[in-house]
């Protein structure tokens, strides 16, 4: 029995929107496809070769069903699909819009499902000789078709095409979920334990990706607060740098390795008793910032914003080369960039233009951890321990320790002399 059924009449419309200019800034390339346009927003970059590839996809699915049925299906879906785009994609004529839905829908289905051999195939980010479009890397096609918020079509279109081709009521998400999971596993965003498809219909492919990013760990209970006033004594603020938490809060950073039999994602950050922050390893390559920024853009219309909360945490913690070195030695950051300075710059710019109410616990799942770490940094005892353990000048720390010991001995001797009198 399929775990996913699309009721078109009651299907929840979720916008596929263009990124606001304040968030986009000068980074248009992060949200725009490099080669393969999907949906109405980037049709200007299409080419004859791209259209031929999409036409081949349509013809293949037509051979497995019938052309008239596919066209009639697009006519039924057009009103609902238009509601998913800004201004209802009003500048596109009906025939052009329906052709776009059909061409892009058929292309995406064949990107994930081999209907001839009845097999689901995982899109890979590795370059190979079997890329669907000549001279275009598989990495580029995956980036364009899966991870860009502006480059999507409603998943209900794929569902209806899938039902038409297969002649049944099976779920297109059941076919796509496994390949998407394998893709995210190869990119080290989630653990290898298989997960069920989302219990609620997803809006589009990036929405499905977002589902697998959600944190899985329950928060570790913190210390009980004495009064309600103390619990809210200050608003949640900006994260400190990793090196500052280490020196002023005696905080240790450890990498949380994924276990094959446990569902996890890179968002499973946790502060444990004793002041150890466990953070899953983040592997940084040419697509990391693009994926995270598009997921943050998606979350701007969501009630919960876990990816944004995680990105704010990492962007503040790892904004200098010194912090990158610390986190890299701990195994938390693994980058393939030229140097630590370049990685730090990427983190520092990751959340540029991002706005979030960090004091809202529903949106910011790391809010309580911020307050626990601030308490450690406010503690004179933790400050002293952090200074001794992680101070830059070890010999100064040793000299101070020796001086304290001598002072203690002198005080004890004075007390003993006074007692003897």
From TrEMBL:
This is Uncharacterized protein. The keyword Transmembrane helix applies. The lineage of its organism: Eukaryota, Viridiplantae, Streptophyta, Embryophyta, Tracheophyta. The chain crosses the membrane at residues 394-415. InterPro entries: DUF247_pln (IPR004158). Keywords: Membrane, Transmembrane, Transmembrane helix.
